[in-house]
Amino acid sequence: MPAxxxxxxxxxxxxxxxxxxxxxxxxxxxxxxxxxxxxxxYASAPGLIDERLLLERLAxxxxxxxxxxxxxxxxxxxxxxxxxxxxEISSLVLAGTAPRGDDPxxxxxxxxxxxxxxKDTEEHGYAAAGVQxxxxxxxxDLTVAPRxxxxxxxxxxxxxxxxxxxxxARDDGTRPSVLALADALHPTAAVCGTPTGTAxxxxxxxxxxxxxxxxxxxxxVDAHGNGEWGIALRCAxxxxxRARLFAGCGIVADSDPVAELAETQxxxxxxxxxxxx
Length: 277
Description:
This protein has helices at about 10-30, 50-60, 105-115, 120-135, 180-185, 195-205, 255-275, and strands spanning about 35-45, 65-70, 75, 80-85, 90-100, 140-145, 150, 155-165, 195, 215-220, 225-230, 235-240, 240-250. It has about 280 residues and is α+β, with helices and mostly antiparallel strands. The radius of gyration is 19 Å and the shape is globular.
């Protein structure tokens, strides 16, 4: 009987499932509360990939996201890390994900289940608390939505918490620029975990890849320190005819490796579909 050839995709999926299971063991042992593990996927085209075409497709299909291109990194992120306009700031924290339904009833049921999910609300709570803790010392006033709401996008729905505030003046009368705010926030628990240092060490141990600029801040700043920065998610790094896609999931004590792997497949879809046409 001929030998069955190895399946690289299946091997990678098993490795990712094992990494999630290992992270859950560490969390249950009390070493940390949450860690975000990411994976990558490579795609090839017969010729150079035109990032302008990708941007056009992403902007048309995901109008509620921030479409971006920066040095070959292209994507459409749903997550606002920080916005500053004068003394006013805002952030939109996303963590906890469910797919969209094929019909309104199924879609509503999935959203209701997400809002009621203990696992997803725990995962989301760490992300929202982290942003609040980072911004509170920099503000005279900070308002955090009392509970997450649903943010429905074309392919997924997320738990979302809106945070807004007014920057406090420093001793010299100045206020931190949007870049300083992004520096204070990054990496959030939505892309790293909590506690941050422990989560980063576990990511290095279990993830088995270099994230590059995936999950980093991407945005703009003006001469007055105002600007808008998102988190580089739902994205791909382009290199001639090749594209490296990224997707990640937040892991907590109740995470299921199979479900987390399925979630990354859903998160790959925006870039995968944009590349296909």
